[in-house]
Amino acid sequence: MPIYEYVCLDCKTQFDALRSMTEADAPIPCKQCQSEHTSRMLSLFFAHSDGRVVAQQSTAAACSSCAGGHCATCG
User: How many Å separate Cα 30 from the centre of its chain?
Assistant: First the structure.
């Protein structure tokens, strides 16, 4: 099962959860305040092999209001 990252849109807590792919976008309560006003975040990743970068995701595509890719404007 994959680990998904979420953010609470009420208290701004970021948390992750081990969930099946079919549950990835289903409502999940915030670990801090228990609100279900949460959103799945775009996960950032980095991979290397033999000291060379083979995969990297940048936050450059995030909107200007949050620069993190998980606000109400950019999802």
Answer: 13
Residue 61's domain spans which residues?
A: 1-46+54-75
Torsions phi, psi of 13, nearest 5?
-70, 135
Determine contact, residues 32/12, Cβ cutoff 8 Å.
Answer: no
* pTM for the predicted model, two decimal places: 0.60
Query: Which pLDDT score, from 0 to 100, does residue 1 have?
Result: 87
- The Cα 72–Cα 75 span in angstroms is 5
CB-based burial of residue 1 (10 Å sphere; 0-12 exposed, 13-18 middle, 19+ buried)?
exposed
Enter the tokens of residue 32: 């801090």
Residue 4, pLDDT score: 94
* Total structural domains within the chain: 1
Joined tokens for residue 27: 């409502």
